Amino acid sequence: MKLNLKIWRQKDANTKGEMVDYTINGVEGDMSFLEMLDVLNEDLINKGKEPVQFDHDCREGICGSCSLQINGEPHGPDRLVTTCQLHMRKFNDGDTIVIEPFRATAFPVIKDLVVDRTAFDRIQQAGGYISVNTSGNTVDANATPIEKDKADDSFYAATCIGCGACVAACKNASAMLFTSAKVSQFALLPQGRVEATERVENMVRQMDLEGFGNCTNTGACEVECPKGISLENIARMNREYLSATVKG
Amino acid sequence: MGILDSKVPSGPLAEKWTKHKNKINLVNPANKRNIDIIVVGTGLAGGSAAATLAELGYNVKTFCYQDSPRRAHSIAAQGGINAAKNYQGDGDSAYRLFYDTIKGGDYRSREANVHRLAEESANIIDQCVAQGVPFARDYGGLLDNRSFGGVLVSRTFYAKGQTGQQLLLGAYSAMNRQINRGKIKPYNRHEMMDMVLVDGKARGIIARNLVTGEIERHSAHAVVLATGGYGNVFFLSTNAMGSNVMAAWRAHRRGAFFANPCFTQIHPTCIPVSGDHQSKLTLMSESLRNDGRIWVPKRIEDAQAIREGKLKPTQLKEEDRDYYLERRYPAFGNLVPRDVASRAAKERCDAGFGVNKTGEAVYLDFASAVQRYGKEEALTRGMKNGDSKTITQLGKDIIEAKYGNLFQMYEKIVDENPYETPMMIYPAVHYTMGGLWVDYNLQTTIEGCYCAGEANFSDHGANRLGASALMQGLADGYFVLPYTIGDYLSNDIRTGAISTDSPEFEYAEKEVKDRINKLMSAKGQHSVDYYHKKLGKIMWDKCGMARNAQGLEEAIVEISALRADFWENVKIPGGTDGMNAELEKAGRVADFLELGELFAKDALTRQESCGGHFREEYQTEEGEALRDDENFKFVSAWEYKGEPKDAVLHKEDLVYENIELKTRSYK
Hints:
The structure holds two protein chains of two kinds. Chain A is an alpha+beta fold. Chain A has helices at residues 33-46, 118-125, 148-158, 165-169, 176-187, 190-193, 196-209, 220-224, 232-247, and strands at 3-9, 18-24, 69-70, 73-74, 96-100, 109-111, 114-115. The N and C termini of chain A lie far apart (60 Å). By secondary structure, chain B is of the alpha+beta class. In chain B, the strands form five sheets. Chain B has a five-stranded parallel β-sheet, sandwiched between helices. In chain B, 60% of the residues are buried. Chains A and B meet through helix 1, helix 2 and helix 3 of A and helix 3, helix 5, helix 6 and helix 12 of B.
């Protein structure tokens, strides 16, 4: 396959970026999208040019490092995959592919396609945990049975990889899906109920402070989420938040 | 034994750890506030250690090259975590877990460390549940278990195929709690470039800020390395792209002995290589061997027809399939340990029975599991005579509930539906049992430098059992290191803050800068990946699943030459200030080029086969590994002396007081 790429290049956070055109030959369907970029970069290096910088690590869809807005969609056209697991067989010979970083005020560009997503870390630090000491002196794991349905829903919420696709997909750059996934994971478990009120208040406060937008129930986040995190989580967080506000 | 003192406490095995904890020195809470600890790496071992140390009251700084601690590669562990809970009532106990681990490691690990691991295992599950880790549960609301290779009980706890993710997010959340309290200061997108020793003690690190390119000095009273394994020396592995040996290797160069570098785990069930563009390999969890049956065609003509696309695996009759693991190892069948399963796959493929285009793949088939589960489900739903279509669908649903995400991942990568046609799999580099030598307290041969998790060598001998890496990472981090390190730090309560203005820091920083400049000023012929791929090929061909003296000798010469070429001709575009992925990779590959040679040297020295280390010269008539306990029942710990060829071997003799050494048999 021969492809035309339009890639966002930006030297650093303080320099203005621009779209640059590249042509790439010999792309095979079995390559992942990032392997296609590897080929491009190898070519650029051999020509003495600077390769395109992008975040990536595990390349098996679980670490949440890779991002990329591909033809306007976070993680590209395929559903339920991250960019590292998007394969080139989803594209055709002669296609033009536009590759940009995830765009959001709260995700400033560091270089080329790399953005700063530490806002997500700070939301988690504000309350995304159960305040139990890690010294190991707790009760037996089977002392508290948990309904399978609830445990499963908690697990599904917890499979969020923190990639930021939900923010990039949202016209308001809202982080509600991300934040609500963590709130839900704990809200559904008896262990997490103890601090539920404070947790939701603190995490939502931090989310707002980071400059993420509001949720207007468009649902684009759920569609683009590589892990299929459900909108139900947002509804659950809204309930939790409302009840927390009422409690004061 | 010379300078290697394992510091294993005396007394009966089962009492050693408790006794040790009761005896070691403690640091009083007020003094802990005056003590700083650096933790490099934020995976299961580093993340859990950082959280617990901070909770105890120490001031912790964490370092990771990723943009967030949550992205450390522990996140990718799929299948599960072992614990001797005996919830299934199948006769499990700490002793059994201990025994299985020693045997699985082919009698090359330290008894006392492994027993401690088994003792702490149950605690991990309690701890994680309290932290809100959503493990799989049954309909009664209690925790579910499954079985892994090399054992005859079900002791593996899991969260679908994302157990590592859930456990790491647990440790990350514990870290977040401490970050929020100001007790942990996280340095993300930072890479440790060197370790700083003051008066022979580890007192800090030099790190590079990967965003600004700045070289920074960080001091502490102790340094914990929890930086994972070095599987990427093979270029292709199941490790993350960034996984590297730099921190451990820099410590090695400063005096930490490197133990058993040749003990590498080649995992039997990975998605086969599809072409030259391949950048990494993807694991298909060992848990799949609970239900998947591994086979190749019985007749070589059939294998050939499959390779040429003239025959489909589903067309092959039952009697024309060779379920070679069930045939060779009736007692353990498809659940033999990883080293055994990998070698058996290689043996079949080398003999011409491979089933993909390159002839390097075998089948992992779920058809019979689908039927078995389908029938069971039909019965429980009251369908006595369910038709085959319904039964198949019910069976597929159960398989999906158990392994859905793995099947989806397979389909995305290979573009085939594994519910309809068997998966193709082949062994790939996965885990490294070797690592920095540590004593019972997890201290390396550098005072004040500790090492936890995959980065150390201590618990898995020559082969790690499935679902034991997560167990070790968390046991080290939550329950071992935070206490043993106190014994050392109790001498530091009057030391006060460590200054970074000392000549030692200045010197180390200069060395780091010189090295970066040297890399940048090479003549610029080939990219870093060019060298990394070449190194990987040498490693895979000559230090891979089967090794021999001739190949290893060649590997040593070739790697040494490649290293010289690298320093002369590597091409790194861009500059040193600011983000530069090529420069990061170059530093890591430079260290792999040294480690690779030591790896080959270690494999050459060990004239026996054990676990994942298979020397072709030393095998039984049936092709099984032939150990030599008389001459090689030791840990090889290498001391750095300049070039890898000059490294000096120290031996820690392994003492077995509780387990009788036997030939490992899974038949």
